[in-house]
Amino acid sequence: MEELFVLAWAAGQHLMADAVASGNSGSLGPHHKLGFENAGTLKRVGTKFRRRLDPRYLTLRPNDAATPA
Predict the structure, then answer these.
(1) Is the full-model pTM beyond 0.70?
(2) Are the C-beta atoms of 59 and 17 separated by less than 8 Å?
(3) Is 50 left (phi over 0), alpha (psi -120 to 50) or beta?
(4) Which of 16, 32, 41, 54 is most buried per CB count within 10 Å?
(5) Longest Cα pair distance anywhere in the chain, in angstroms?
(6) Residue 40: its pLDDT value, please?
(7) Domain spans of the chain, in order of start
(8) Strands (E), the chain
């Protein structure tokens, strides 16, 4: 994923965003280690296998990245 950061920052992008289900610690942990920060959560707006999900939105800016460009 670090390679993607380098390409994005070199192309002039100022923000990367992702959405992860709130209960998915297997995905949230690595995102936080890379420098992503919580931007907000939308309660009960997603579904997967007939379960309601709370998508958590994460953002990363070039200066926050674990691997700066």
Answers:
(1) yes
(2) yes
(3) left
(4) 16
(5) 41
(6) 94
(7) 2-8+15-64
(8) 16-21, 37-41, 46-48, 51-53, 55-60
H-helix or E-strand containing 62? none
> Which residue carries 């200066």 as its tokens?
63
d(CA 54, CA 35): 21
d(CA 16, CA 45) in angstroms, rounded, equals 22
Q: What is the pLDDT along the chain (69 residues), one digit of tens a residue?
A: 778 888 888 888 889 999 998 888 888 899 999 889 999 999 988 778 888 889 999 999 877 665 544
In angstroms, the CA 67 to CA 33 distance is 11
Rounded to 5°, the CA angle 32-45-25 comes to 25
